[in-house]
Amino acid sequence: PHSLCSGPAAAVHPRETPVMKATGLLLHAALMLAATAVGGGVQGAPDALDVQQFAGKRVLFITAHPDDAEGMAGGLIASLRQVKARVGYLIMTNGDKGGTCYNATARYNCSKADMAALRQQEQYDAARFLGVAADDVRFLDLEDGMLRTYPEAQVLVKVTAFIRVFKPFAVFTWRPQPDFSCPPGKAQQPSSWGDLGYHPDHMQSGQLALDAVFGFATSIAKEYDELAQAGLAPWTVDQFYMFATSGMTSYVAMTEAELQVKVKAYELHKSQFDNPDEVLTNIRWVAKTLASQVGDPSITYAEGYTSFF
Question: Is the pTM here over 0.70, yes or no?
């Protein structure tokens, strides 16, 4: 399969405006050009991501929710820490609308404030399990599901500021447009991860990351002179990748043991699932499906990424 979804590309989702579709198509064209440049042609097999190139460097994951980084890139993050890369997380929303609280004996509904606090702690625990320092995990604490409702300039300056603080060599994030081959609820995995191709928070976090990295974290934006005055000098990111559900240009292969590390990291987000077997089933299915796109039968599991620059 070429995607986590089967069948032909879907029509634009009802919430998708013509402007958003046009933006998505323009970015899609750019990504295809990038694939031609780095992968020997659009139809060519993706390249193995050279994790060693990040040795001793800083790599930042900009995501929408607690658990996004482990779910989409847990294998890569573990590999980055093995080569002594410094890994950072910037998480835009607090996850206050998803999941259930729990104690030693039961699961129960709780307030949004309690859910946000729980998900933050789960994120710290999962990051620590993969070797990411708590000081390198930053939350913007915006409301879950509402990222698009915040004034972009206010969020963008915070993203820009953290990029200038962390000074990453590479950034990984969500796609800023839908995967039109994977409409909501159509992913073929056995359970409930139906938002991999379309989620407003995911796309907005990717767009904000791209805007910050491509322009506002550098010296292009005069609006952010106050950041420089505060000692946060412009910073240029060398590489920018997006989590891929289709059209990946790069992949990270995982052995069974490496997959289990990713699963254990995600299992620390206990509020997100009732049955731990569901985590293994979903992650294994996604990793197998992405591995099938690589074209190498010796690779059983993989994570996929699309390189923009």
Answer: yes
